[in-house]
Specification:
The chain is of the alpha/beta class. It is built from 13 helices and eight strands. Strand 4, helix 8 and strand 5 form a beta-alpha-beta unit. The structure holds flavin-adenine dinucleotide.
């Protein structure tokens, strides 16, 4: 297939496209399906709107792998402001950061300090800090960052990717710190000796990990969050939670803004705890290519936007 998952994930690595495509109006219009707008105010307004249907929001500013200390400081300060806005407006909002946005590649000590400062701010504003998982080269560093931040600030969570062969052991090891884990399938291009190349294997691994996490939730050693739009899988997980006596709230379902919105509302109406992750900002190229890779049919939105 010419426009398969690999095609878009390869495009995501092009710095030329990153610099140019973000200026093309018709692609900018197409991204509106997945983001309420580039400005943080757009995301805050969308959070207030989602709250009307009982959904919480997770805010994430796009941009990864920054190249200077100053850029990392700007990201940290931006999230300080978001936490203040969440508190001032009384919004049900949390924040999710990528460690490379806080300088993991350039100065790990600074990244550690900034993540801790954000976790402290989350705590003082009654919010919560999420740490995203990036490509497989960052997993060890992200896990150790999470362990040290979680030891000081319990209200922090980490994303774990079901497609990685290592994840069952990583989850098992993390259970000692009573983690909050957002289980996702995984969005990056990984080689076949590291991650399942076949989607069916990732889906099976996801359910097995969900089962492990729900059993841990039953004994109070994990808060599992299921970050997926796979409705059939979510249905099986909810049934499993029920069988294990794990009530809604002892686990949650998180989805991305603009994807399966009707299903998000239906789950909420069914008494599930549902949160929606909103991305915003101008550095959306890599992120948008990952959304196209997840569902190449999304390219139809780009074509329709091009045609006006
Ligand atoms: C809250 C949240 C946080 C995430 N954080 C991370 C992270 O930190 N690290 C990471 O690697 N990945 C992250 N992801 C992305 C994740 O890894 C997957 O790439 C993404 O969720 C698609 O997989 P899926 O589980 O929805 O299942 P799939 O089996 O891929 O999709 C199930 C169905 O959902 C719909 N769907 C899925 N994706 C799209 C899309 N882009 N557009 C339209 N419909 C779609 C389709 O109908 C599809 O048939 C996150 C996802 C969510 C929901």
């Amino acid at each position: 297939m010419p426009f398969g998952r690999g095609f878009f994930l390869a495009l995501a690595k092009s710095s030329y496209l990153n610099d140019h495509v973000t200026k093309w109006g018709f692609v900018r219009r197409a991204t509106r399906r997945f983001m309420p707008g580039e400005a943080p105010e757009d995301a805050l307004n969308a959070c207030a709107e989602l709250a009307k249907s009982g959904r919480g929001t997770i805010f994430t500013k796009l941009g990864e792998a920054i190249t200077s200390r100053d850029e990392a400081t700007v990201v940290r300060d931006h999230y300080f402001w978001i936490f203040d806005q969440i508190k001032a407006k009384g919004l049900p909002g949390h924040v999710s950061v990528k460690p490379t946005q806080l300088g993991l590649d350039i100065e790990p000590g600074m990244c550690q300090n900034y993540t801790e400062e954000l976790a402290a701010k989350a705590q003082s504003t009654g919010s919560f800090l999420w740490i995203d998982m990036e490509d497989s080269s960052y997993v060890d560093r992200t896990l150790s960052l999470y362990r040290s931040v979680k030891a000081k600030y319990p209200d922090t969570g980490i994303a774990m990717q079901a497609y990685l062969f290592r994840t069952p052991k990583d989850v098992q090891d993390l259970l000692t710190v009573k983690p909050v884990i957002r289980l996702v399938k995984g969005a990056y291009a990984e080689p076949p000796h590291i991650a399942f190349p076949r989607k069916a294997d990732t889906d099976r691994a996801y359910y097995e990990l969900a089962d492990t996490m729900l059993k841990a939730a039953a004994s109070g050693t994990c808060l599992p969050i299921f970050g997926t739009h796979d409705v059939a899988l979510v249905g099986r997980i909810i049934a499993r939670a029920k069988a294990l006596g794990v009530a809604p709230g002892k686990y949650e379902v998180h989805m991305l803004y603009g994807i399966k919105d009707g299903e998000q509302k239906r789950l909420r109406a069914d008494n599930q705890v549902v949160k929606t992750l909103i991305s915003y900002g101008s550095s959306w190229f890599k992120w948008y290519m990952r959304r196209l890779a997840e569902r190449p049919a999304n390219v139809g939105f780009v074509i329709r936007s091009m045609l006006g």
